[in-house]
Amino acid sequence: MPPEDLPLLSAPAEGLPEVVDTPAGLRAAVSGLGAGTGSVAVDAERASGFRYGQRAFLVQLRREGAGTVLIDPEPFSSLAILDDALRGTEWVLHAATQDLPCLAELDMRPDALFDTELAARMLGYDRFGLAAVVGETVGVRLAKEHSAVDWSTRPLPESWLNYAALDVEVLLEVADVLDGQLHARGLAEYAQQEFEHLLGFAPPVRDEPWRRMHGLGTLRSPRQLARARELWTVRERVAEAEDVAPSRLLRDRDITALAGATLRTADDVFRTLGTGRLTRRDARRWLDAVRHADSLPQDALPPRRAPGDRSRPRTDRTDVKERTAAMREAMYELAERTGIPHDLLLQPALVRALAARPDLAPSGSSGLLEPVRGFLAGEDARAWQTELSAPVLARALEAVPGV
């Protein structure tokens, strides 16, 4: 049945619960959830694009015997009391890597989890957004028009709260269906290894996060990179102080435009970016950042490449291209045989990194199998990924001339 023909789930079956925003309300919610049974569905809403950082502005939970609970985390410095009540309980989340960091900021960390998005991907679902997976598994339609709203708004509109409550209302049933499908396909053990791996998930901490800006490759000189770095640093400092998303102050493309422009006065900033939402104060701030970068001595300028980019030994480009193509084709064939998407069988970045290793050498009768296994183990591949992928990758490499 097409998604638009599925019955629309428009309101929580048990009515919309009051939002918990007082210590007394939190204690009552904790008591109810702690007395519930089975897994707990967990979701969080952030204000990405509106506020600084990725903190949660609403936490939704649902558990058998406790119903749905909506918590406004802003009045609380921690939700550790809730975390304690759920110790040993499996959490069911959709796209866990999105929510785990902001929940950890509230001192909430699961002991076990089931990720419905990851399960759907492993099962080869064509679409694995929550609404699509809900429609495919339990046959109802979720409205998603509030997915990108500013969840820091207070008070939260009732229609938004309905949306948030419905996200967890169906999640436990979805997990049961997916779990049955994983077992039927013989994928349950693989999925479990992935879920256990997610328990240790944390966003990567980068030595030079400014290098993640879009469009940085258009800048040609170390001086221009210094300008971009300084603009990014000032933007972050102001955004944090004002609790606003950095992109609302200055977009990445604005930073690269300023870094490559000739700037002598605030008017030059306006000419480069347009007046738009820029104030005179804004223009002077960005001009001061550029001037500071321009005053740096040559030895304080950033190199074109991040320091770690050359840390690994390099292989001839042509050889790398041939190895990568051979291994990629082998992984696609493995994906066809297993029904598991190739990027879940093994992250494409690992295939590329393996292709770039010039130090691979056959190991006795096992050929390249043991070196490949050792490489994958060192790169934190899960046991199931190594079991399936290592023999395929080793054979593909051995078939490349010159290896």
UniProtKB/TrEMBL annotation:
Kindly give the CDD domains that the UniProt entry links to this protein. Answer: RNaseD_exo
Q: Which residues form the HRDC domain?
A: 221-300
What SMART domains does UniProt report for this protein, alphabetically? Answer: 35EXOc (SM00474), HRDC (SM00341)
Its recorded name reads Ribonuclease D
Pfam families for this protein? DNA_pol_A_exo1, DNA_pol_A_exoN, HRDC
What the entry lists under SUPFAM superfamilies is as follows: HRDC-like, Ribonuclease H-like
The Basic and acidic residues compositionally biased stretches are 306-320
Query: Which superkingdom is the protein from?
Result: Bacteria
| PROSITE patterns (UniProt xref) | HRDC
Annotated region (Disordered) at 297-320
